[in-house]
Structures are given as structure tokens and as C-alpha cells.
Write a structure and sequence with these properties.
Layout (H helix, E strand, L loop, with lengths): L10 H9 L3 H19 L2 H10 L3 H9 L4 H28 L3 H12 L11 H26 L1 H13 L2
Helix pairs in contact: 2-5, 2-7, 3-5, 5-7, 7-8
Length: 165
Amino acid sequence: MLRIPFPNDVKQVEIKLRALGLNRQVDQFILSMNRGAEKAVQKAGPIFLSAITEMSFSDARNILNGPDNAATTYFRNKTESKLVVAFKPDIKETLDQIHVTKLWTDITSTYNKIPLTRDVETDLPQYVTGKAIDGLFIKIAEEEKKIRSDPAARVSEILKKVFGR
């Protein structure tokens, strides 16, 4: 399982909060981001199924004859915008339950006004949604790599699971 970390753009905020003894609050923040992502990812199945049923013969041939990440690229192109729409509300709801979304927006908006600093993402649900989708596609890429390196073994494993042998 992938873990969504404290946003890199403001890693110094995490360091300073921990130095002030606010480990519990930082850990709760990180846990909430991950719980929201876990809840949202459950909605991915039907979106991927739709991408499979919409796959053309040409798409399948391009995946088969394409580079090692052809299937991952296909699924990302076909599903990413739908995944954002499906994931973000659940993630926002989970983050709102511990009241961090508004706090995050206030803090990052203020930070972005400081001259000579690089702006950070002020939309926390958007950050977590993006990281959840990135994590999902990292897992898909890992599976695709396994399948491409030994297709017969992977198919046999899948068939054993499906047919209980």
C-alpha cells in the first residue's frame, strides 16, 4: 500500500510542527489524507471496467505491441479525469471531518503571498486526489511489469485464483 506523505511543497511546516511537539496532529493529518484516499479508491473498479469495455481492437493491439507501460498509459488516459471526479468528494469529506481543509487553504494562501517563494497547492483535496491517483497508477504499472516479464505465470496465478486451483 502506498502512503500519501505530508505535501513536499511545505515539508518545512511538518518539520516545524513536529519540533513544537505536534506529532499527534501531524500524524492525524497524514492519516486523514490516506483514509480519504483509501475510501475514494474503492470507486475505481467500475471506471476501469468501463475503460476495458470501451477498448477497441486497435487499443488492445497497441497495448500488446507497445512499450512496457502501454496498458498503464492507456488506462491513465482513459480514466484519470473520471477518477478525479469520483475520488475528490470522498477525500474532501474525510478531510473536512477533522477540519483541516479550511485550515490548509488559509495557511497555504497566506504562504503563497510571501514574495520570492514558490506557490504551493492550496486545494488539499486536489493534492490528495492527485496523490491517490498517482499511487493507483504506480500499482498498475508494477502489475503490468510483472505480467510483461512472465505472462504465462501471471495468467496461471490469476486463473488459479479465479478457479480455486
